[in-house]
Specification:
The structure holds 2 protein chains of 2 kinds. Chain A is an alpha/beta fold. Chain A has one domain (28-270): P-loop containing nucleotide triphosphate hydrolases (Rossmann fold, 3-Layer(aba) Sandwich). Helix content of chain A is 33%, strand content 23%. Chain A is built from 10 helices and 10 strands. Chain A has a 6-stranded mixed β-sheet, sandwiched between helices. A 4-stranded antiparallel β-sheet of chain A has the order 2-1-4-5, with helices on one face. In chain A, strand 9 and strand 10 (247-253) form a beta hairpin. In chain A, helix 3 (124-134) packs parallel to helix 6 (174-187), helix 4 (141-154) packs across helix 6 and helix 6 (174-187) packs parallel to helix 7 (204-217). Chain A is globular. By secondary structure, chain B is an all-alpha fold. Chain B has one domain: Methane Monooxygenase Hydroxylase, Chain G, domain 1, CATH 1.20.58. Chain B has helices at residues 10-43, 46-77, 81-110, 125-145, 148-178, 183-215, 219-223. In chain B, helix 1 runs antiparallel to helix 4 (125-145), helix 2 (46-77) runs antiparallel to helix 3 and helix 3 packs antiparallel against helix 6 (183-215). Chain B is elongated and about 65 Å long. The chains are: A alpha/beta, B mainly alpha. The A-B interface holds A 1-4, 6, 230-231, 234, 258-261, 264, 266-268, 270-275 and B 3-9, 12, 78-85, 145-149, 213-217.
Amino acid sequence: MLMNDTTAPEAQMPIAPSDLDSGKTPKMKAENVNVYYGEKHAIKDVSINIHDDKVTAFIGPSGCGKSTFLRTLNRMNDTIPIARVTGHIELDGEDIHAPRMDVVQLRARVGMVFQKPNPFPKSIYENIAYGPRIHGLASGKAEMDAIVEKSLKRAGLWEEVKDRLEDSGTALSGGQQQRLCIARAIAVDPEVILMDEPCSALDPIATAKIEELIHELRGKYAIAIVTHNMQQAARVSQRTAFFHLGELVEYGRTSDIFTNPRAKRTQDYITGRYG
Amino acid sequence: MDNGTGHTLKAFDDDLNRLRALISEMGGMAEHAIREAMRCLVQRDEETAKQIVTDDKKIDALEIETERRAIQLIALRAPMAADLRDVVAALKISGVVERIGDYAKNIAKRVPEIENRTIEPLSLMPEMARIATEMVHDVLDAFVARDAEAAREVYERDKKVDDFYNSIFRTLVTHMIENPKQISEAAHLLFVAKNLERVGDHATNIAEMVYYAATGENMAERLG
């Protein structure tokens, strides 16, 4: 009996261990989600829970659907005309596709940070203040100042920028810009933060700062992160979901996925045998 | 160290295979040392026994080399899942094999102390050594082949070695009572038997490591 035979045939294998997070109410719950881009079936019947005290990492090879799936969680795919999403997604038990759900409000509650830092071409202060202003979260200059300070502090950027809040956000280094974007997401007091490869354009030190930040933000926000860097998934997350060809192949504790994955496809991918 | 398909990065496979080959080489040397030490004991070959003591340094050097390569592999390749379990197993197994080499050395050192070749249990010991070294051989083969079933089979063989030990122990005690002048020699033989018993135990420990490396599950928990 060779070792790899101990990974069960996937067809009979549940995607997640049965005892995992049983009885816990998830922050977000996706059930039988499918995404089509025109004819292409990009996400196939994916069900997964996102918990508010955990960082959930989505890993998988390019084109596996992990980013597409992440974007369903705050209806970012609505902005793509040919994209069609079916299935059920809940935030705190509320259907995010319900007619009464205000999508702008949804995206404030489920914030997003992208691969390339994309600060507005405005001052550092304005980058943070913009969201709270349009959502009416501050009733005066003093309150807005407090939100800006708190957000920058939470994003670990305050000490570096407090004396130059009027400088342009685009004048910051890449890593600082990304933390500015995280501060901007935090400013509207979200419940969930989605990060789509937030470090792929950053150097190792800036990456380490973002990872430390993710660690500090855990517990305050539910966090889901897409990453190409498996070591990063291992470092920052408590739950890992492995996607392949639009399917969720395996979901479990990060420590289990990286020491003893159940599915052969997961094993092949994380050990560098894929493709 | 083939886990089905090879790594996309071939050099990773080369590194893992090299580590595996080192363990095999070490195992072969330790196994040979135990068998030779027992032959020396029975035939009173003091010259070869001295050589066994000297040669133990080669096993020690291989342990250091294994450790160096394993640490380098972890640092440079960041192995995951079955690969990581393999590298950690290699690291641990090399330490255990080094201990087995020490037992061979210890037996070899006792060769000049046994003058009387007629102490009865001495005739049982080569067989005990054969079983114990075969366990070492087979469990290291199981490691190379990632064969959990073969590891489990070795694990179950340890009882035979224990039975030999208990039987030799009783016979030696009886011998000491009946021949008080040979107590010193009999005591040396008792240590030899104990060393062989420990070799069996170490092979059993390696079997558990191999099982975990191959399956990701603890053998004792799995088999109860």
